[in-house]
Amino acid sequence: MRKWFGQSLRLGLAPDGLALVRTSIWPHERARLLAQARFKENNVEAALREAERMLADHEREGWALRVVLSDELVRLWQVAPPPGAARMADLEAACALRYRALFGASPAGWQVRADWSATRPFLASAVPQALLAQLQQAAAGSGFRLVEVAPQFVAALNQHRSMRRPGAWFGVVHGGVLSVAAFDGALLAAVRTAPIPEGADRDWLEGHVAREALRVGLGRPERLQVCGPAPKAWASSAGRLKFACTLFEDELDPLWPDSARLAMTGRAP
Question: What's the sign of the alpha-carbon dihedral 154, 126, 17, 53?
Fold first, then answer.
């Protein structure tokens, strides 16, 4: 057992694929891609069955398991606290009302988590309870401790929170989609998601950011900070004065699939 001290697993789960990665607290040990699978069509049930098989194949009694879910599997929304909110019940009610307005139903059957605040807008997320139960069953069946299940966008935002520059918006690229957190100063104003068209260059990015700023009633940001496999052409270059763009680099193998990068989202450096 001593040789496995400091080891844990990370699972990236998306409707079109998944990957299992082994990580270590020791700096000399690099993350190792243990298994991965892709599906021709989105199939959550097939992905969950494959996740159970992968975990069984790499059974490690007592190891910690962290799961990162692609944003297609969850729901994200921004909540403005009601004026005079003084109790947690007030915030939960505002969160549920905003959920119903956006998604047309109550959040029953979903586990809701949020950066609860009575003084500023906050980000909320919801994960299907049935999905959580299946992940818990798969982990327990192979002896793992399921210590965290996080949406990718939330994991990425938390990972890079200390690096967010004043006046910057934050973006995540995954599976051909760009998700952007628009900030009004230090306050979260909105979370917007859009597919990235083929060949999207810096001109597309500048037009997209300008449109999103208009939609949420904000000025164009001074900087966009992006993590994930974003086009290199988005990075700032000479002559680009509309806004700066910083691409966060990672040390992952460039040949790793998106699902493995998904698994590693939120990992502390």
Answer: positive
| CATH class of the domain at 162-247 | alpha beta
- Rounded to a whole number of angstroms, the CA Rg of the chain reads 19
Per-residue pLDDT reduced to its tens digit, 124-181: 999 999 999 999 999 999 999 999 999 999 999 988 888 888 889 999 998 889 999 9
CATH number assigned to the domain covering 2-70+128-154: 3.30.420.430
pTM: 0.88
Q: pLDDT tens-digit profile of 26-59?
A: 666 788 899 999 988 888 999 999 999 999 998 7
Instruction: Show the tokens assigned to 194.
Output: 């859009």
Side by side, the strands of the sheet bearing 75-79 are 75-79, 122-128, 110-114
As to burial, measured by CB atoms within 10 angstroms (0-12 exposed, 13-18 middle, 19+ buried), residue 74 is: buried
Longest dimension (CA), the chain: 57
Helix residue ranges per DSSP H, the chain: 44-57, 88-103, 129-141, 152-159, 202-216, 258-264
Tokens coding 48: 């969950």
Residue from 177, 145, 161, 117 nearest 60 by CA = 145
State both tokens at 137.
Answer: 């069953």
Q: Are strands 122-128 and 110-114 parallel, antiparallel or unpaired?
A: antiparallel
Spell out the domain ranges in the chain.
Answer: 2-70+128-154, 72-126, 162-247
Spatial CB neighbours of 35, under 8 Å, sequence gap ≥ 6: 19, 20, 54, 57, 58
